[in-house]
Specification:
Elements (H helix, E strand, L loop, with lengths): L8 E3 L1 E7 L2 E6 L3 E3 L2 E4 L5 E4 L4 E7 L1 H17 L4 H14 L8 E6 L4 E5 L4 E2 L3 E2 L2 E7 L2 H11 L6 H15 L8 E6 L2
Antiparallel strand pairs: 1-4, 2-3, 2-12, 3-13, 4-5, 6-7, 7-8, 8-9, 9-10, 11-12
Helix pairs in contact: 1-2, 3-4
């Protein structure tokens, strides 16, 4: 990194677990700027669409808030159609000059579908196993994903898997902490 560029913000681990009639998105609270932790209790997981959708973000906070606002607008335009709202959002994200510069990723879920959204136009569903499905994003995402995949075949509930996966990521990733926020929906 050159001296004229600000330190890159690293932020977070977000994990999604869908199992036994529940879908859970959880995230840690750490925000780091360069080698400094600037906040330990950021809330990166929230409810959208009057509580019918849950979502979490990794990346630049202001960018993620902008994307959450845009997604809320798409959900109002296409009520009850999370996939369509997400496809329309990612189309805008790729083609709009302002949105193209946003650096964030999102995991979103409703009672029926779970999706990963990115600025490169990705709208991805998790690979389902007979016991459920998991996805993760962010600095510690791969650690949480590996843990969740290992735990999905156990008798642990979705929320317990998300919490344990985030705890494992926090033990490994310096950009992830143990301050966890979880949002849960009963699946269809």
């Amino acid at each position: 990194m050159s001296e004229d560029q600000p330190p890159r913000m690293h932020a977070t681990t977000i994990v999604m677990v869908r199992k036994d009639g529940q879908v859970v998105i959880g995230g840690d609270g750490q925000v780091s700027l360069g080698q400094t932790i600037v906040k330990g209790n950021a809330r990166k997981v929230r409810r959208l669409a009057k509580g019918g959708v849950i979502g979490g973000f990794a990346g630049a906070t202001a960018d993620a808030f902008t994307l959450f606002e845009r997604l809320e607008g798409k959900l109002e335009q296409y009520p009850g159609q999370l996939t369509r709202a997400c496809v329309e959002l990612t189309k805008d994200w790729r083609t709009d000059r302002y949105l193209r510069r946003l650096e964030a990723m999102m995991l979103v879920a409703d009672r029926e579908v779970s999706l990963l959204l990115s600025g490169s136009g990705d709208v991805l569903e998790p690979e389902a196993t007979p016991n459920g499905a998991v996805m993760a994003i962010g600095s510690g995402g791969n650690f949480a994903l590996a843990a969740a995949r290992a735990l999905i075949d156990t008798d642990m509930a979705a929320e317990a898997i998300a919490r344990r996966s985030l705890a494992i990521a926090a033990e490994i990733c310096v950009y992830t902490n143990g301050n966890v926020v979880i949002e849960t929906l009963d699946a269809a």
